[in-house]
Amino acid sequence: MENALRTASYVSKVAERQVALKATSATLLTGVGACVLEIGAGHGHFLTAYAAAHPERTCVGLDIIAERVERANRKKNRARLGNLHFLHASAEDFLASLPENIRFADVFVLFPDPWPKRRHHKNRLMQADFLSQIAAKAGQGLRLYFRTDDTDYFAAARAVVMEHPAWQILDAPWAFEYETVFQERAPGYQSLVAALRG
Is 149 a catalytic residue? Predict the structure, then answer.
């Protein structure tokens, strides 16, 4: 049975997080039209290298673990990258809090939690709702880059993208290679590149 007080408290905390995140995003992304997004940025290895190689692009990395975000920001500061920002946020909260004018140039999802148990599949990031939210904030030429070492998750993600009316899978090269910790440890992995139809 649902606990009304607990539910109300949870909804209130989500709203507070999103209000704070909206203010932070508005400050960090002032004057920015489009950004590159990495969801699940971990310690920031990939996006720090990407931002250094693409100084003309504003890059935002998200992670739900605060210690990872702190380490990623230390990398960013050591590299003195003014075009890079790491935020302690879920994709759901960030997308709900994003300034209206911001569009995505590219989105990277690298080695996300596969939630392997069937009852947890609903927690996987690569779902139709997520694809619709990204499509709604698409900048010109947006591409979605997804990579995982979990064969089942790759098949499921590929099916979700293929079934989505806004997206199509491309036979296209990976935009930027930089080996992450997860990639280094993985015995193998599969990659997917997608773009909006039309």
Answer: no
